[in-house]
Amino acid sequence: MNYKVLYRKYRPNNFENIIGQEYIIKTLKNSIIHNNISHAYIFSGPRGTGKTSTAKVFAKAINCLNQKDGSPCGECEFCKNFQENPDIIEIDAASNNGVDEIRNLIDNIKLTPTNGKYKVYIIDEVHMLTTSAFNALLLTLEEPPAHAIFILATTNIENVPITILSRCQRFDFQKIKVSDITKALKRICELEDIKINDEALEEVAYLSEGGMRDALSLLDQLSKSNEEITLELIESVVKTISLKSVNDLLNDLEENDVEKTLELINDFRNRAVDYKTLIKKIIDVASNRAKNIKLTSRYQRLNYFEYKNLVLAMADSLNKININVDSYTILEMILLEYLNTSNIKNEEVIPEPQKEVPEEVLKEKMNVTPSNELSDELVNIRINNCFVNAQKKYLESLKSAFDNLFLQDIPGKIKAILIDSQVVAASDTNIIFTCHNEHNVAHAINDLDEVEELINKELNSDYKIIFISEKRWLEEKNKYIENIKNKKGYSYIEEKMPVKNDEHLLNDIFDASKIEIV
Ligand SMILES: [Zn+2]
User: Taking a C-beta distance cutoff of 8 angstroms, is the pair 152, 164 a contact?
Assistant: First the structure.
């Protein structure tokens, strides 16, 4: 079989096939069109971003007998025999870091090119040259013959002497975007008849860290299995974990699903996933989520600061790898901090703290302002009234209205409450919100009139609203479901200005609501 590895087979042979470096290509083409070519270039950037390919296409274009708009024609004698052209001299400084190689180059540089107009010297990984080799190169760069062009490429520009840099026109190659690599890979998979699904395609692009060569090498490796390339195959071949798995982990964390979170960590542990790679991916995904939290996306359980702290804790956990403990235990402990562990069903997983804390102390600690009886009544009435005609359609439309609500002009303290809360039930007259942080419930109740007025102004509506904790909502919801099952209906309770110790009103509530109220 005449098998050629993909990255050689698909090495770009014209500017159009070089992806992700539009600005550099445009500048180089312009310099060719305007015959404004430098004698020395330095291409810096991460591996696999197209430095050598660009150098070769550039060398071809400046010698092409028939170039069009700065691009090589691909058909003339020079273009056709490009691979065997003695005037294109490639030196890999990583393998030939001796001064002899450069001396040899200098001895022959005076000779005019055999075919084209220019002799092009491409020196890969130029930072690997020895000091004396650099000195020899510098002499040449100071007075190059008119027919000589140098293209120096490096992944480590910091190690190239400034004296060399100052004589070169510099181009910084960027990591190629995942979306660009995905697109290019898709095309190649189609041409090669490689079966791969979209998720897996994106994963390969992600794993290549912005380098097309790595992406193609990985694709090569995966395609040898002769089965459809899936995330599972990638995970088993590369011993890595997919972006999807990391996203799943953070989704479980968002959904406060303790069991699933621990299960996933255990799965990573059993598969002996490389810990550093895993943490790096969690940092990538979590920091992206943190950056993309908008003021209005308050249906996200974790806020910006929680994600920020998670990212910092993850980075810090990398320092603990060498300690003689199971690294995954550290990961577990960090993630558990972000789970509301009061929801843990199985007490064996994490025992509830046994220590008894006097209620007063606890309240103070949680920064909960005890709500007075007056507002307790109002809370009960409004929960009841919402249930009278609570419907999914009201809930859905309010949820989307709140997603799109612009919070910019809302005072800080109310914004803090709204960002932390979500609509959990709605009727045509009432809305129930829950707050993730308990202390925000107390704040919301204290400023209920102001919050209500703001919401009604924004929505151009006339809702009665109420805020409760997530725990309370769980209880209320269960009671509601129970009542619906037992065909106990709800009837509307008039909202009078509740007066403290008003026996009549209290009786009214209990009679009319026909539900047990705590
Ligand atoms: Zn040509």
Answer: yes
